[in-house]
Amino acid sequence: MATVTFTAKDVQELRRRTGAGMMECKKALEETAGDMDKAVEYLRKKGIAKAEKRAGRTTSEGVITSYIHPPGKIGVLVELNCETDFVARTDDFKTLAREIAMHIASAAPLAVDKDGVPPDAVDRERRIAEEQVRASGKPDHLVPKIVEGKLESYYKQVALLSQPWIREDKKTIGDLVKEASSRLGENVQVRRFVRFQMGEE
Q1: Is residue 107 located within the same domain as residue 127?
Q2: Do 37 and 130 have their domain in common?
């Protein structure tokens, strides 16, 4: 069996990128033959599994973060929750809240998740999608499935947790939150946000 070669620096870099422990990073590099990107993915998969186990725990602490986008025409307030005041005060948690606020300023989501998207907006998109699919001549029995696929694409545009992150579009904001939950060892949730744009209601 070939020896996998990676250095202590590689382990440190992986720790920096993922927030995982030293032994977890070492194991990830061993499992992925020293490939840094695959190791990140390996840890993300593990981390997301851990985060999902925490999803039911109460989040009564956190921060409300503001972000004003230069030159001052767009402003965002976001409430990010966690389980303890200790985690709420960490730089990692505050940075995540700021990243999410900046993302909201840029991507203008309508709601935190799919369930929060206004029903009238979903109904409108469903009607448009159905008309488009029928006009394209697809068989009737395929229409509902294609319409649902189009609605999923719509959610990726308007539901914050489904949106691709502006800094790394292979990740969603939901992935970002789950990774933070894994690193911090607590349930982390975006509770709500408000986005103001000059001249808009």
Answers
A1: no
A2: no
CB 29 within 8 A of CB 11: yes
Residue 87 is encoded by which pair of tokens?
Answer: 């985690």
Tokens found for residue 46 = 């593990």
Instruction: Give me the number of domains the chain comprises.
Output: 3
Return per-residue pLDDT of the chain as tens, 201 residues: 445 678 888 888 887 777 677 778 888 899 888 888 888 888 877 775 556 556 666 677 999 999 999 999 999 999 999 999 999 999 999 999 999 999 999 999 999 998 899 899 999 999 999 998 888 888 888 888 999 999 999 999 999 999 999 999 999 999 999 999 989 988 999 999 999 999 876
**C-beta neighbour count of 99 within 10 angstroms:** 20
